[in-house]
Specification:
The protein has four helices and eleven strands; from the N terminus they run ααβαβββββββαβββ. The chain is α/β, with parallel strands linked by helices. It is globular.
Length: 182
């Protein structure tokens, strides 16, 4: 995709996501900053902040678990290289702890694909599997939303017993729900 394509796709994705009632009523959203060829998230993060939503972003810990920090705009991000892996953009400020995600009304999850059951295929590091397990242990039930391109919504992805379906997938062209909006 060209830089113009990426900007247009990011704007369309943000517009579709902002239409979700789950994001409209969430006081706190746990999200992430897209990297590489992932659908762009900065426009969405900024739009959520403009609505007065508290946006938390992950910081990768050495054991692949996630800590969280507040997003205060693009200037609050630090580019962090984790070993030989891809550099990530993480919140530069104070860390809130791994359990901070349990306060979110919605969690935006990255992924490589999602299938017709709502099962998400991640990158294989297990970071978001830990987040989902933490939410379950805490009895927290935020809306789980994955952000993808249309071509990444597929018929079937492999799933393991610990995997949990997401509530919806947002693509630049629309929303597909796997559970009704509450």
């Amino acid at each position: 995709m060209t830089p113009d394509d990426l900007r247009e796709t990011s704007a369309a994705l943000a517009g579709r996501a902002l239409e979700l009632p789950e994001l409209a009523r969430a006081g706190t959203v746990a999200a992430y900053v897209s990297v590489g060829s992932e659908p762009g998230t900065l426009a969405l993060l900024d739009a959520l902040r403009a609505r007065g939503v508290r946006v938390m972003l992950p910081a990768l810990l050495p054991d692949n678990d996630l800590d969280w920090g507040a997003y205060e705009g693009e200037g609050s991000l630090a580019r962090v290289q984790h070993g030989g892996r891809m550099a990530l953009f993480e919140p530069a400020g104070e860390r809130l702890g791994p359990d901070a995600v349990t306060t979110a009304g919605a969690v935006l999850l990255p992924g490589l694909a999602v299938d017709a059951r709502g099962m998400r295929l991640g990158r294989g590091g297990g970071s978001y599997d830990r987040v989902l397990a933490r939410l379950e242990r805490a009895g927290a039930h935020p809306a789980l939303v994955v952000l993808l391109y249309e071509s990444e919504v597929v018929g079937h992805v492999p799933a393991e017993p610990h995997d949990r379906p997401v509530d919806a997938v947002v693509t630049p062209s629309g929303v597909r729900r796997f559970r009704p909006a509450p």
